[in-house]
Amino acid sequence: MIAHHVLFWLKTDTTEEEKAAFLNGLKSLEDIEVVKSFHIGVPAPIERAVVDTTYTFSLILFFEDLAAHDIYQVHPVHKAFLDKFRVFFEKVVI
């Protein structure tokens, strides 16, 4: 099993409507056939030095193997998400 964990920091001027659209875009990634498990989250309000709560959304995808991950990377749904929403990214960490 391969885990693909992505943290998104959206630009500070992103509106609530744009965040909602971004969230719906993230949800569309679950429809990719090679995705075995899927979770979207936001930071918990935990105040500890080792916890980063500055990101906007967390996306965790699980794939059967690296080949499935590679299919996901070039899948039209994933590419459409990137084309539409990368303008909102301030920072992305995988």
Quote the beta fraction: 25-35%
The strand line-up of the biggest sheet is: 2-3-1-4
Largest sheet: 4 strands, antiparallel
Structural class: alpha+beta
Topology, number of strands: 4
Question: What is the third-level CATH name, the topology?
Answer: Alpha-Beta Plaits
Whole-number radius of gyration?
14 Å
How many individual helices?
3
Offer a quick outline of the entry.
The protein has three helices and four strands; from the N terminus they run βαββααβ.
Description:
A four-stranded antiparallel β-sheet has the order 2-3-1-4. It has helices at residues 16-28, 66-74, 76-85; strands at 2-10, 35-41, 57-63, 89-93. Helix 1 (16-28) runs antiparallel to helix 3 (76-85). It has three helices and four strands. The mean pLDDT is 96. The chain is α+β, with helices and mostly antiparallel strands and 94 residues long. The protein has one domain (2-93): Alpha-Beta Plaits (2-Layer Sandwich). The chain is globular.
List the helices and strands and how they pair.
Elements: E1 2-10, H1 16-28, E2 35-41, E3 57-63, H2 66-74, H3 76-85, E4 89-93
Antiparallel strand pairs: 1-3, 1-4, 2-3
Helix pairs in contact: 1-3
Name the features.
94 residues, alpha+beta, 4-stranded antiparallel sheet
